[in-house]
């Protein structure tokens, strides 16, 4: 072997060595890349599962809050006819509306109907008691009339007048001037008949779950 050959061999060996070194460093880089990729995937998976666990916890809390509001929430307990409205008051399974404006009996009847309710039908002392404390001696229409046949009083929802509670003022109904066919609450919540075009306040009622 001459010197030149030896030199060549040495160069090939060197080149090989360099190639192997490069290969090794490449592998290291790839290995590192793969490792970081794996790490990123794992971390993302962990954080994703944490986020979803958190959000499901949050949902559970929210549902619980809603349930609390429905079951024992002060708003719904105090205002079953609607916590966002001061117009309707709750009593014994129904919601009542006490008008702030005056109008004839027929207009009042329509007003109640437009609010998916009817003029109040007072069929018990408990209900009378509830209504009279809120009408405060003012005149308020109720759903009672003898328009169809003089002296034959009828509740607008078909409740039998003859067998149910009444609370007429003494001497009423008197059909004064032969023209009094609509009933309203008055002083001490007692009832009076007056002409139907008279303008006074009115009480509407509707079931709690309409
Ligand atoms: Ca009458
Ligand atoms: Ca009268």
From TrEMBL:
Q: Which residues form a coiled coil?
A: none
Q: What stretches pass through the bilayer?
A: 29-48
| GO MF annotation: an example | carbohydrate binding
Pfam families documented for this protein: Lectin_C
Q: Does the keyword Disulfide bond apply?
A: yes
Q: InterPro entries annotated for this entry?
A: C-type_lectin-like (IPR001304), C-type_lectin-like/link_sf (IPR016186), C-type_lectin/snaclec_domain (IPR050111), C-type_lectin_CS (IPR018378), CD209-like_CTLD (IPR033989), CTDL_fold (IPR016187)
Q: Which keywords does the record carry? A: Disulfide bond, Lectin, Membrane, Transmembrane, Transmembrane helix
Instruction: Domain (C-type lectin): give its ranges.
Output: 91-205
Q: Does the keyword Transferase apply?
A: no
Tell me which PANTHER family the record gives.
Answer: MANNOSE, PHOSPHOLIPASE, LECTIN RECEPTOR RELATED
Q: What is this protein called?
A: C-type lectin domain-containing protein
């Amino acid at each position: 072997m001459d010197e030149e050959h030896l030199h060549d061999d040495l160069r090939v060996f060197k080149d090989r060595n360099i190639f192997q070194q490069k290969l090794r460093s490449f592998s290291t880089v790839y290995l590192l890349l793969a490792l970081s990729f794996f790490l990123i995937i794992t971390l993302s998976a962990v954080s994703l599962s944490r986020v979803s666990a958190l959000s499901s916890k949050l949902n559970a809390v929210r549902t619980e809050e809603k349930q609390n509001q429905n079951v024992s929430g002060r708003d719904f307990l105090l205002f079953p006819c609607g916590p966002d409205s001061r117009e309707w008051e709750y009593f014994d399974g129904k919601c009542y509306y006490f008008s702030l404006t005056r109008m004839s009996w027929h207009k009042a009847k329509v007003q109640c109907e437009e609010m998916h309710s009817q003029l109040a039908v007072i069929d018990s002392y408990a209900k009378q008691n509830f209504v009279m404390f809120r009408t405060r001696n003012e005149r308020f229409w109720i759903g009672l009339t003898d328009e169809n046949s003089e002296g034959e009083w009828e509740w607008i929802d078909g409740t039998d007048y003859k067998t149910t509670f009444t609370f007429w003022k003494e001497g009423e109904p008197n059909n004064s001037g032969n023209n009094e066919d609509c009933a309203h609450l008055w002083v001490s919540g007692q009832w009076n008949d007056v002409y139907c075009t008279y303008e006074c306040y009115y009480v509407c009622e509707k079931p709690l779950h309409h």
